TrEMBL record:
Its EC number is 3.2.1.107. Pfam families: Glyco_hydro_65m (PF03632). Residues 278-484 form the Glycoside hydrolase family 65 central catalytic domain. This is Protein-glucosylgalactosylhydroxylysine glucosidase. It comes from Origma solitaria. GO terms for molecular function: protein-glucosylgalactosylhydroxylysine glucosidase activity. SUPFAM superfamilies: Six-hairpin glycosidases (SSF48208). It catalyses: (5R)-5-O-[alpha-D-glucosyl-(1->2)-beta-D-galactosyl]-5-hydroxy-L-lysyl-[collagen] + H2O = (5R)-5-O-(beta-D-galactosyl)-5-hydroxy-L-lysyl-[collagen] + D-glucose.
Length: 666
């Protein structure tokens, strides 16, 4: 249950299923509360399809035990989980958080506070399942450091034969079996730290920094400060139903926990998996692999609010380009084919061959993210100097080599694929796959012109002549060649042509696609599906129909900590960031009508009846930060900040009437 504050979730008992307990995560380290393992970003063990996040033993998976009434709180404003025991003469509070700016540090504190005038000692037991060993790492104890125990080792099996085995170094405060408040003490706090890094130096540096902050009494405050700064810069607030506001805060908490902090020099980013860093042990949450979920479902909202983190996500894809080139060669194609499931190398790690072989739309999905980023930031350095152009060119070459010319139709075909709707495979001309291939080729041509490079004629020719199935009689897009209306569909597929692809079509066709697929989409399908139907209906100014779709998402949000499940029956991934990403897109692209275009950011708001106001602070566009306040009566747009280096582009608001309003800072 949540009290009056929509960003604070409280309970007197934890859910019976531990998978639904909240997670505490930052860009490098994550765990589920009270769990005996944690994960470190990019640390996978196992070869190819067996690659999974390596379990690192967690010294902070401890739990207090004492007589009294228990309560559990997840505070999304401070990024902190707490467990409190209220006894007749004292309270004991255990806080746990993944430090937002010291990303190699997990911290825990236990405070015992006397409530009466008694002078007897008060003892709280600590229950811990911690064992300093792992099924995935060969761990060796090292010498203690600053009073901390030290353990280090490497993963047991590399992802590819002869490839690297990532290292883990961990320092942690020894955990006593009990803590006692002395008879003369009123209150005392114990800080317990765990530093996890890929090198001994980084682990020691992080542990040292944590100790210094703890000694000054400001360890938790420094985390809260960094987290609050992030939340302020990515603020989305609405006046509407309490359940919607709580869901929004839950989504922001779990999604923002997964991204690197602003101006973080903490090394390369390792991508976002559907269940986040806290999940992904062998057999759980797709083993921590990265899918199109990152690029299509999670990325757009991150881009709008935090382009630095969006850039880090793209750099992850650039770092896996060599693996993607090998995937293409193995399929007899040119260029680069991104894997359906990616870990550290970009090689295909999906345990079932059919998805890697056929669900090739992921390669185009990656490029759509690059295009959205460029249109929002005009960051040419990413393409000129940081490997972005090599990736764009490789994807264009892949699509050209994957197409075949149909003499009969005088169009290019892409045959033998699985569309996003995974109930169908071996189909020809998936509407979504071919549309995303066309968009890839158009962007590659545009980018070549931006960089003053020659544009291969083949790219433009194939983009013009690729088939995207369309039924002239019924005026809708069949999902693939031979699709029969009424056939069951697993999840959002053709509806994605309208958004995010913005494939050219009339309002009539957009409506027909929604009408055709809404009744035949499996109600037991994955959580992100309904958000895209909602965005479609908002685009057509049908807010009630949109709300009916958005409401379906609530059966995937579990109480009390707003942890999403992939499927409404509780199966699939948990802490399902993909569903949260789709939900956030309804608010950031549906209610506002934001569309990222080549030379503008469109907005055209529509609200369901129950929502009266939406305020989005920190929308980043061409070096400017904008605050949009939208009510039924008016839209206020304010430039709250402009970048000096590089200088921000001057903006103006242009109304449909043609009226123009220059937007200057303040």
């Amino acid at each position: 249950m949540a009290d009056g504050d929509p960003g604070v979730f409280r309970a007197t008992a934890l859910p019976g299923d531990p998978r639904l307990w909240p997670t505490v995560t930052n860009a490098f380290v994550g765990t589920r509360v009270f769990r005996d393992i944690l994960h470190a970003a990019g640390v996978y063990s196992g070869a190819a399809g067996d690659t999974h996040r390596a379990d690192v033993p967690s010294p902070l998976g401890l739990r207090m035990a004492a007589p009294g009434a228990e309560s559990f709180t997840l505070d999304t404003w401070t990024g902190t989980f707490s467990h409190t025991i209220q006894s007749p003469g004292f309270t004991a509070t255990h806080q746990l958080y993944a430090h937002h700016s010291l990303v190699h540090l997990m911290a825990s504190s236990i405070t015992i506070r006397r409530l009466d005038g008694s002078t007897h000692p008060i003892t709280v037991q600590l229950q811990s399942l911690f064992v300093p060993q792992s099924q995935d790492l060969d761990l060796i104890p090292g010498p203690d450091f600053q009073g901390a125990h030290y353990l280090y080792g490497r993963t047991l099996v590399p992802e590819v034969e002869g490839g690297p085995r990532p290292a883990v170094h961990m320092l942690w405060t020894p955990i006593p079996p009990r803590l006692t408040l002395g008879g003369q003490e009123r209150e005392r706090r114990w800080d317990l730290l765990a530093a996890v890094a890929s090198s001994e130096e980084e682990a020691k540096r992080s542990y040292d920094a944590g100790l210094a902050l703890a000694a000054a009494g400001s360890l938790h405050r420094s985390h809260v400060h960094a987290w609050a700064e992030l939340r302020r810069g990515c603020s989305v607030e609405l006046d509407g139903p309490p359940a919607l506001r709580q869901a929004l805060h839950g989504c922001l908490y779990y999604l923002l926990s997964a991204i690197p902090p602003r101006d973080s020099p903490a090394g390369p980013f390792h991508g976002i998996s559907p269940g986040g860093l806290s999940n992904g042990t062998r057999g759980e949450d797709y083993w921590g692999h990265v899918f199109w979920d990152q690029d299509t479902w999670i990325f757009p909202s991150i881009l709008l609010l935090h382009p630095g983190a969006a850039r880090a996500i793209l750099l992850y894809r650039i770092s896996t380009l060599e693996g993607a080139r090998r995937n293409a060669r193995e399929q007899g194609c040119e260029g680069a084919k991104f894997p359906w499931e990616s870990a550290a190398t970009g090689r295909e790690v999906c345990p079932e061959e059919i998805y890697g072989a056929q669900e090739i739309h992921v390669t185009g999905d990656v490029l759509v993210a690059f295009e959205q980023y460029y249109c929002t930031t005009q960051d040419l350095k990413l393409f000129r100097e940081d490997g972005g152009w090599e990736l764009v060119e490789a994807v264009a070459r892949y699509w050209c080599s994957r197409m075949v010319w149909s003499e009969e139709e005088q169009l290019y075909h892409i045959r033998g694929v699985m569309p996003p709707d995974e109930y169908h495979s071996h189909v020809d001309n998936s509407a979504f796959t071919n549309a995303v291939a066309r968009r890839s080729l158009n962007f590659a041509s545009d980018m070549a012109r931006e960089l003053l490079l020659p544009v291969p004629e083949e790219w433009e020719d194939r983009a013009r002549k690729i088939k995207v199935p369309f039924d002239e009689e019924r005026k809708y897009h069949p999902e693939y060649d031979g699709y029969s209306p009424g056939e069951l569909v697993k999840q959002a597929d053709v509806v994605l042509l309208g958004f995010p692809l913005m494939h050219p079509m009339s309002a009539e066709v957009r409506r027909n696609d929604l009408e055709m697929y809404e009744p035949v989409t499996d109600p037991a399908g994955p959580a992100m599906t309904w958000s895209m139907f909602a965005v479609g209906w908002l685009e057509l100014k049908e807010p009630q129909r949109a709300w009916n779709q958005l409401e379906k998402c609530f059966s995937n949000i579990t109480e009390p900590f707003k942890v999403w499940v992939e499927n409404s029956d509780g199966s699939g991934a948990v802490n399902f960031l993909t569903g949260m990403g789709g939900f956030l897109q309804v608010i950031l692209f549906g209610f506002t009508g934001f569309r990222i275009m080549r030379s503008s950011l469109l907005f055209n708001p529509t609200f369901p009846d129950d929502i009266t106001k939406l305020k989005v602070s920190g929308v980043c566009y061409l070096g400017n930060k904008l605050e949009f306040t939208i009510t039924r009566e008016e839209i206020r747009v304010e430039v709250t900040e402009t970048s000096r280096d590089p200088p921000a582009s001057p903006l103006e608001a242009v109304l449909e009437s043609g009226q123009r309003f220059p937007l200057r800072e303040g």
